[in-house]
Specification:
With 299 residues, the protein is mainly α. It is 53% helix and 3% strand. The chain has two domains: 5-102 and 283-295, Orthogonal Bundle (DNA polymerase, domain 1); 108-269, hpI Integrase, Chain A (Orthogonal Bundle), CATH 1.10.443.10. A three-stranded antiparallel sheet has the order 1-2-3.
């Protein structure tokens, strides 16, 4: 039995708000196809470019934001993927339509890689005076390392268990979450010393202090990862431009894209869809208009 597009989205574990947004763009696309007598099952790349151009046209004198155009194209990429999986068509005409100017990363004030590494190297763990705890300092440096070297989100760090960090093999297994795939990432040499000290000593100290003896790599006696708030206050003492974990993750993914191919970065970042990785590429959305004008002139 064929499934509907909304059922497909639910099965892909998208958030309810995301599903609603995708369905709105889907309905607009279907209505446009009907008005032009195009069949979504057979529509080609060139015709999809016309729709992409339509998404950029002013409405009531106001030009749509770059972000909304990006979301509209992304929603249709997923719609065509759904059609392929349901055997309605054999290709995705929008697969290589990379409108990248609306990247969320640009709103994060990206950091240079040297700035990221400095967060780790400059993190204070010596001469910690009461009421501060040396074990807390080591823990926070370890968390900083996970963000800087593995690009982990706070959610991924929260779900790490002690068995996921293997110093002997030099890797970290990152479990999947609702939004990311599992992956195995290399432990970088600057991390080894602080990780070893934390695992051998400081983790147990913190477990005893809060009476929390679970397998969690970072002990917490609350569902909320409250350690992050105090950590970022310390990071801002190192670099005033630090905002949050999203900024750090966006910065390291953007750095990775300069070193590795996009599929490798997709794996390292845990992105379920290549489109999630593409938004970090440093290209301008205005290139789409030039592409339409140069390759497919419209009279």
């Amino acid at each position: 039995m064929k499934k509907s597009f909304d059922t497909y989205l639910y099965e892909q574990a998208y958030a309810k708000s995301t599903i609603n947004t995708y369905l709105i763009y889907h309905d607009k696309f279907i209505k446009w196809c009907e008005s032009k007598d195009y069949d979504p099952y057979t529509i080609d790349y060139k015709t999809c470019l016309l729709y992409a151009k339509k998404l950029q046209r002013p409405v009531k004198g106001k030009r749509p934001s770059k972000k909304s155009t990006k979301i509209g194209i992304g929603a249709l990429k997923i719609f065509f993927k759904y059609l392929i999986e349901e055997n309605h068509r054999g290709d995705n005409p929008m697969e290589n339509m990379n409108i990248r100017g609306a990247k969320r990363t640009l709103n994060h004030n990206l950091l240079e890689y040297e700035e990221l590494e400095d967060l780790f190297y400059s993190f204070p763990t010596q001469n910690i005076e009461l009421p501060n705890s040396p074990s807390v300092a080591i823990r926070d440096k370890v968390i900083t390392g996970f963000m800087v070297y593995q690009g982990l989100s706070i959610t991924s760090i929260k779900h790490l268990k002690i068995q996921h960090v293997n110093l002997e093999r030099g890797n970290i297994y990152v479990p999947s979450t609702l939004k990311t795939n599992y992956r195995k990432l290399e432990i970088k040499s600057p991390q080894v010393l602080s990780l070893a000290q934390y695992i051998q000593n400081d983790r147990e100290v913190l477990q005893n202090a809060i009476a929390c003896h679970t397998e969690a790599f970072i002990p917490q006696n609350s569902d909320r990862f409250t350690v992050a708030c105090q950590l970022f206050k310390k990071l801002r003492n190192i670099n005033l431009n630090i905002k949050n974990a999203h900024q750090i993750r966006a910065s390291i993914i953007t750095h990775w894209l300069k070193l590795y191919n996009i599929r490798e970065v997709q794996y390292m970042a845990g992105h379920r869809y290549i489109s999630s990785t593409e938004r970090f590429l440093q290209d301008d959305i205005e290139n789409l208009q030039e592409m339409i004008d140069n390759l497919h002139p419209i009279n």
